[in-house]
Structure formats: C-alpha cells, structure tokens
Amino acid sequence: MSENQHSHGEQGRHEVVVGVGPVSIQDIVDVARHDAPVRISDDALEAIAESSARIRELAGFERPVYGVSTGFGALATRHIPQNMRRQLQRSLIRSHAAGSGPEVEREVIRALMLLRLSTLATGRTGVRPEVAQAYAGMLSAGITPVVHEYGSLGCSGDLAPLAHCALAVIGEGPVRTRDGELTTSAEALSEAGLEPVELAEKEGLALINGTDGMLGQLVLAISDLDRLMRLADLAAAMSVEGQLGTDRVFRADLQALRPHPGQAASAANMAAILADSGIVFSHKGDDCTYVQDAYSLRCSPQVAGAARDTIEHARMVAGRELASAVDNPVVTLDGRVESNGNFHGAPVAYVLDFLAIAVADAASISERRTDRFLDAARNRGLPPFLADDAGVDSGHMIAQYTQAAVVSELKRLANPASVDSIPSSAMQEDHVSMGWSAARKLRKAIDGLTRVLAIEILTAARGIDLREPEASPATARVIAAIRASGVQGPGTDRFLAPEIESVVQLVSSGALLDVVESVTGRLQ
C-alpha cells in the first residue's frame, strides 16, 4: 500500500501515514476507533501540489470547466465569473451541509474524514496541499464535525455528511472535541493551533464528492464481523456441547466434499472449541440413541460459512474502493480534467445490503439454537427453560423473547436499501444508490447480532453447567470468564437484563474471543 505504513508519533501514539496509495482497513480502524494521529507523506503532498497547479491553470480558461467555473448539478450550465468562484465554493459547502436528525457516531465521521483525505492524497482532485493538511490536522487533534443521520442519497457522494465535515474545515459549524465537548469549529481549530481554510476553485466540490461515508461504515462493519463470526462459531459449539450434539459432522473430510472456504473455517473452529469435551465424549458410545442433530446445530458451519464468504466478497469490494480516487471532475494522470460517474455508490451499497442479509441469517440460526436449549421436548434432558424450579422460575424463557425481537428487527433491516432510488437535483441526478442508508441499517444489524450471540452464549453456559461431565477446556474457560464478570450460574430467577448486558460487553469488546483463543489458538 505504497507509503501507508504505520509508525509512532512523538508521544508514542500510533500514527497513520497517508500516501498516494490506499489506506488499509486497519489504518481506518486505528484512526476511527483508537484516535491514531495522521500524517501525509511527502510523495502525496507532491502529487497534490501538481494537480492543484493544473486546476489553477484551468481556472483562467474561457472554456467552462465543471466545478471550476460553473455551477453544480442541474446548475452546471451557469458560468461563474472569476471574482465569484471562491464564494461559489463556500456557498456549495454551506448549502450542502443540510443534514438532519441525530448525530452520527464519532468513529463513522473520523473514518469518513480519513477516506476523504486518502482520496485527496492521490493527487487526482486538484485541491491545494493546505486543504489536505487541514483534514490531517483535525483528525490528529481529535476534532470531529457534527454530522447528522439524514442527508445522503449515496450518489454524487455522501454529499451532506461530507459537507458538514468541509464546513468545519472552513471554520464554520459545530464540532466536538476529543473529550466530546460541543463547541464551534472556529474555537476548536484555534485551540488546536489550526487555521480555517479559504477554499479555492473546485476545492469545495472535491471535499464532498465521494463514497467515504458508506465506505467507512463498510470497513468498520467488516472489522466487527471478522470478530463476530468467530464468536458465532463459539456460540454454536457451546450449543452443540450443551445439547449433547456430535462433533463428527465438523470433520474436515466432510467439509471438503463441499469446498466453500468459509464453511471449512467455521467447522474447523467448532471442532477446535469442542476438542477434549467430556460432555461430547460421554455420548459417543454405541448406547447413544441420537442419530442426527437438528439443522441449527448440524448446519452451523454451512450458515456461518456462507456469511464468512459474503464478508470476503465485501472485503474485495472495499479493497477496490479504497484503491479508488472518487471525485467529479477528476484530474487524470495526463493532466486532463474529466467529468465521470465514479461517485455512484452502487458497488458499496450492494455489499452493505448483502452483509445485512448474512447478519440476519447468522442471528436467526443462533436464536433457533437458543430456543432448543429451553424446550424440554428437545433439549435432551435439561429442565424446561433451564429453570431452577420450572413453574416457580421462568429461567431463560424471556431471554429468548429478547432474541426473537432482535431477529425480527434484523429481518426487516435485511430489506435492501439499494433497490430504492429517488431522483434529485431537478432530475440531473435521476438514479441514486441509497448506500448511506444501507450502511446505517447494517450498523444497527451488527449491534443486534452482537446481542443475539451474547444471549446464546449466556444460555449455553447455563445449559453446560447443568450437565455432569466436564466441558471442553475452551468452553470451560469461557464460562469461567462469564462467571467472573458477575453473571451467576444456574439457580433461582434473578434480574436477567444486567447479566445479558454483561455478556454483550464481553462479546463486543473482544474479551470473550481472547479467552477462547487462549485455549484454541487463533480461530479462523
């Protein structure tokens, strides 16, 4: 990835260097979630300066150049005189910063800003170096513009979200400091020793014409799902163990008969987690009357594997998008300034929707496994609802209701946003991607999957505790970590919501994954 390597800042903080080549998924996570400071490489600054000089040259031409000497969108036929072109860029940012609704999460905004900076660093947008440096400076200072939930149609770029960020760069609009304090951009920039930027020709347009909002959320989702799919394998393995299922179906030679890579990885993970399980071993003899496990147990690798392969497809698309210079018009390598349609969000929108489908199905099969634990007719000898005194106690009955409510919501969120299009800009922009909307619902879906898996793991831990033989070393360590977090073992009914939330935190933080991998080694 060219010069986009990791180094360390003066204060020992991890630093991300943005060069001419693409930033990596890890770069984005480091900046968005861990406040890594940002620096622009020398070769990127040189490339930026070269394309900026070309735009300054074209600004003096009599022939109209879109975004340099014309209006925007349906107003592109309006020629703008030289003395009004800086006002044109300011007006563009102010008018397009038209978002509404709740504030967008800080990590999303930081990812969006880093991705816009990455495109500026390619030298294909025509902005001056000081504009790119302004983005790096704000990211390093922890200054986050206020961006709102609604405003992007995912075409011509994530216009409103990007415009709110550009507004802060020119010293206008509200921002939040590193500590979360709401203040004005002018005050925050001043306190950080940064100067507002006065935009020149094309620069306002270059700051808002990109898929950075939806792409940033896609990258964060991929990072989350890489962790959650391994935890889905843990949850499934614990359910197989607690419900006296067999691990024979997860053998590598059986998976090789249907060579989907995600399926093989999931099955291998489950086999590793179940290794040396006294519970599984206890019913392997000829006296076992169980012939086959239910689909939700036996087919876990097939479902989780399909979700994994979907994530890999999304990663491929994200990689291509990260290597892109998305702007309109764009400065080509030979110095031309050309209009194009690369800002259309369809490629990103499709995979965001595809991931929401995979998330919904992974949660759906998890809920089915949980439900089997609670049904005395199907749980192979466990008490109804895993209750201490069924009838007096309800056990985990309502935990499954909570799962079912989340799964129902996830099925609604799996309805694709990208099949919709509402024309805008007086029909100039007559087909849009709705990629931002796809990204927003995927973030909600990932939160839902986290909660569904946490409830399955919580329930499986209780079910395994009710079995007499010893659990596998991996699941025993997981159960110990759950108990150490304050969640009690089987017993009379108690306030269940805090226990669910405790396991949600163990799942979302990655702590539970660390625990299981301390026994199995890194899962696939």
Automatic annotation (TrEMBL):
Transmembrane segments: none annotated. GO terms for biological process: L-histidine catabolic process to glutamate and formamide; L-histidine catabolic process to glutamate and formate. The keyword DNA-binding does not apply. InterPro entries: Aromatic_Lyase (IPR001106), Fumarase/histidase_N (IPR024083), HutH (IPR005921), L-Aspartase-like (IPR008948), Phe/His_NH3-lyase_AS (IPR022313). It catalyses: L-histidine = trans-urocanate + NH4(+). PROSITE patterns: PAL_HISTIDASE. Pathway: Amino-acid degradation; L-histidine degradation into L-glutamate; N-formimidoyl-L-glutamate from L-histidine: step 1/3. Belongs to the PAL/histidase family. This is Histidine ammonia-lyase. The gene is hutH.
